[in-house]
Design goal:
Blueprint: H1 9-29, E1 46-50, E2 54-60, E3 69-74, E4 77-84, E5 103-110, E6 121-125, E7 128-134, E8 149-150, E9 153-154
Antiparallel strand pairs: 1-2, 2-7, 3-4, 4-5, 6-7, 8-9
Length: 172
């Protein structure tokens, strides 16, 4: 004779409650400023703005020296990688809180078309990376000048002189 165990519906409710408790605790009680679930290689915070002549990327990298930051653009994707190698002194006693980020950080962002990554420039000041990627001339906004016309004739020549006037006896 075989004994079959059936799962208790009460057990499913308890596991659902535990899952909901974990969800709220992870979301509100324990904040993780460096990415989801505190994973290694977590995302780093970025600000990306677009001006008329460039795309500006700012990345917060506190405690990371500039020589440990790698910036690449490949197939329209900007990737920023950083490695923190700060050594922590092991002292007598127990660690109560350990929130300083150590290890690797990375972030990959798809770039809009019309940029010139070969002409990009980067600076690093006070733990913030400033990356400027210029826009190509073809995608920069241009102002189009309106030429006034009267009865289908332009009232100015390309040099800005009035047209339709005398030509001093010469034919145009």
């Amino acid at each position: 004779m075989t004994i079959v165990r059936r799962p208790s519906p009460l057990g499913e409710l308890v596991s659902l409650r535990q899952a909901m408790d974990r969800l709220f605790e992870d979301s509100f009680v324990r904040s993780r400023p460096w990415g989801l679930n505190g994973e290694a290689g977590a995302a780093l915070p970025l600000d990306i703005t677009s001006s008329t002549d460039a795309l500006i990327v700012e990345a917060a990298l506190p405690g990371v020296p500039p020589e440990d930051v790698e910036i690449t653009v490949e197939d329209g994707t900007l990737t920023i990688r950083a490695e923190t190698t700060s050594e922590r002194k092991e002292e007598d006693g127990q660690t109560l809180i350990s929130e300083i980020r150590r290890g690797s950080l990375s972030r990959a962002v798809a770039l809009p078309s019309g940029l010139e990554p070969d002409k990009a420039s980067a600076t690093f000041e006070h733990g913030v990376l400033h990356l400027r990627i210029p826009k190509a001339e073809a995608v920069k906004p241009r102002q189009i000048r309106i030429t006034p016309t009267i009865d289908g004739q332009s009232t100015t020549t390309p040099a800005g002189e009035p047209s339709g006037g005398e030509t001093n006896g010469r034919e145009a």
